[in-house]
Amino acid sequence: MKTKTKIKQSFDKGSSSYESNCDIQRLICHQLVNFFFERKEKITLSKDIKGLDLGAGNGILSFELLKFIKFEKLHLIDFSDKMLDLAKKKIKQSFVTYEVKDFENLNEIEKFNFIFSNMSLHWSKNFNVLLKKLLEKISNNTLLFFSIPNSIYFEKKEPFYNFDNLMNKFPDIKNLLNQLDKNKYFLESKNITFKENFNNLFSFFYKLRSIGANVNTENKKKSLIRLRKQKTKLSVFYNINFVLIKKL
Length: 248
Fold this sequence. Notes:
CATH architecture: 3-Layer(aba) Sandwich
Helix content: 25-40%
Strand content: 25-35%
Order of helices and strands: HHEHEHEEHEHEHHE
Strand order of the largest sheet: 3-2-1-4-5-7-6
CATH superfamily: Vaccinia Virus protein VP39
Structural class: alpha/beta
Distance between the termini: 41 Å
Largest sheet: 7 strands, mixed
Number of domains: 1
Radius of gyration: 18 Å
């Protein structure tokens, strides 16, 4: 099965329990909104804001931004129709539209001047290509901001067997941003680490599965049954990068 198909099916399945288990995603979203508004004086928002939520999922980021921003139109896309159904229950304004679509196949990017995403872009099959496409196609004065994980690491009392095979790799966003042409783009970024406690390693992966985020994108062998043997309590640290880019 193709990786993107697996990801879609996993989030379709996770949609039924997503709202009650997305604590970290919700917290990251709130901090992303704070990150943006702390820098609002450094940028100028268009009077006719046309928003695009990439990988919108349950719509939490759009929902939070709607509290503060007056959109002319707002378009949410996600390749999971069941996740978008969650967003539709939150957001019912007439100027808001929805589309079941893989953000990697998105065209007409230049129609939007306010593009954002929360914890979704790392599911791209090639994040480097996706970011380059966005930066090339967005119009001048368009804002792009998003959250993306740098790493997930653990604090535990006992070592985990073959731990490197348990997690997917994340894009090297720091290196990509260092290559950004500062004459063409305004850039600000910030790293924040979030902490979550679990009774054991199995409960961590079980929670990932409950929201559909446990997809193995690198064909590594991973068995949740084997993880049941790990009884040690642990803290999980999510190192997240917040990025704000404006095309000049």
